[in-house]
Specification:
Blueprint (H helix, E strand, L loop, with lengths): L1 H13 L4 E8 L5 E8 L31 E5 L12
Antiparallel strand pairs: 1-2, 2-3
Protein name: FAR1 domain-containing protein
Organism: Phytophthora nicotianae P1569
Amino acid sequence: MEIEATEIEVWNRKQVVDVTKAHHKKNKSREIWQRDFKCDKFGRTQSNWGLTDEDRVRTQRTTGKIGCRMKIRLEALEPNNTGGQWK
């Protein structure tokens, strides 16, 4: 899994959008057997209060989200054998 993580870091240096580590799952031995990588601009903005752009008080505060849906999931074929093959 370390090789894939370094390849993602090399790709990040060439792109405008950055890929960050997201969620992970561990087995009983506390070894990570599943890791997600997501775009740092992942998701869309929310309007929790139903405000329009004209009604907003803090107009200078913007979000970096652009609606990117890119996600990479690395997962061990056997959760108890993290030294084996990954998909």
